[in-house]
Structure formats: structure tokens, C-alpha cells
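Workshop exercise sheet. Pairs work together: one partner reads the sequence aloud, the other fills in the structure field after running the prediction. Swap roles for the next sheet.
Pair: D.N. / O.F.
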Amino acid sequence: MARAVPIKSAEELDRSRRAAQLAAEVLAMIEPHVVPGVSTEALDRLCHDHIVKVQGAIPANLGYHGYPKTILTSVNQVVCHGIPSPDKILKKGDIVNIDVAVNMDGWFGDTSRMFFVGEPSTLARRLVETTYEALLAGIRQVRPGATLGDVGHAIQSVAQQAHFSVVREYCGHGIGQIYHDEPQVLHFGQRGQGLKLEAGMVFTIEPMLNAGKRDTRQLPDGWTVVTKDRSLSAQWEHMVAVTPEGYEVLTAWPGGTGAYAAV
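Structure field:
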């Protein structure tokens, strides 16, 4: 039986917001380092040291179910859960998702974003930007009385209009004092279906879109997930709180949205 979806008090929301902002800060810190010639291992080390030495927080992914690193680095056809490695060197034209989670005073923050390594192909840029638009479309559905089906339908509609596919095996999740909590947030669905949202709920929305078919497979390392047809994949992730008026993006980027539309 699934746990009831936690409803956070104002004080608990403050703690959740603090952890979320630390996670967002890590992604802002690492951005200048995502360049051709860098290894994903080097990026992992930078993020680890920033979380531990600068933020005084705990890298939440390190050791989680045996995961060996601080961040997840998913390059090109990797859908999610790519493991940083000294042998994985980023090159011009790559796209990479960096996913980071921190634990601060027992509260979790979790977010991810895409980076271009040099100039991407036209298809890669369109996939990355469409995935971001799908994330925004999902977030904009969040308000008391809406349903998770509304969120999933909005994401799916943006993807399908661009002729991209939505990965179905992995979803967003509730988060707070538990890293992966209820509810499960699917990135496809029907309007009016699923859990009805209430103020105080906090969860991630993290759509994964593929340039080809939606099918995935896990590599023998037990973590890395790739597209079955080797097509490109992209993902963005924000933590979102349901507020009495609508929503709050807890993992808003410290430096603003750059070239991307504000949510």
C-alpha cells in the first residue's frame, strides 16, 4: 500500500526550499566546466567538493542503493542514471544531463538540467529545448484541484506535437525528508485523472524525451539507461511545491533562466 502524500507545513516548506536551492546552486556552479575535453569524473569531483566543502551538505546520490558517485551524467543517447567516469570525455556537439541531489539537515533537494557541449546539432538543440518546454507545460498545470493526469497530459502533448517520444519507465516523485516519496509523477496521462493536488505537496517533474522511440534498456552496470534505438535523449528536472495560488519552483536557477523561458 502506497504512503499517503505528505502535506508540508510552512516551516517544512522552508527546509525543502533550502535543500532545493542548494541543488540548483550546484548546477549553476558546474556550468562553466561543461566543456569539450572534460571527463564526467572531473565534473563529479567538482560537484562533490562543492556540496561537501562549500555548502556543508551531503551528496544524496553517493551510496544511494549502492550508487558510486555524486552526480548522474547522461550523455547523448543515455536517458538517465549515467555514471561519471574518467574514460567518458565530453566532445563538441554532445548534450549532457547533469542530475544532482543534496541532503541538508535531513531534507532533500533534487534537480537536473541539460548542457550543450559546444554547438549541438539542429536535432539535439530542438530535442533539448522541446523537453524544457514540456517541463514548463507540466509545471504550469500545478495548482490545488488539478490532477497529476493534467501534468502528464501537458508534457505528453508538447512532446508529441514535436514528434518526440516520452520515456515511461521513469517518473517524478514526492520529495522532502524522504528522497523518493509519494506521489509518483508520470510524464504522460489524461486530463482529470490521477491524484488531485493539494497545497503543501512537493514533488519533482522530470520528463525524459527521446528523438526516436520511447523504448529504453539498462546497461550491465545496473544503472545506465539508454535508448534502445540509440537515438538522442534529453531530460530536465525541477522540484515544485503546490501553493494555495498555484505553484512554486523550488529549484529555480540562481542566475536566472539564461536563454530559456522563465517558468
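Discussion prompt: Residues 206 and 237 are 4 Å apart (CA to CA). What would you look at next?
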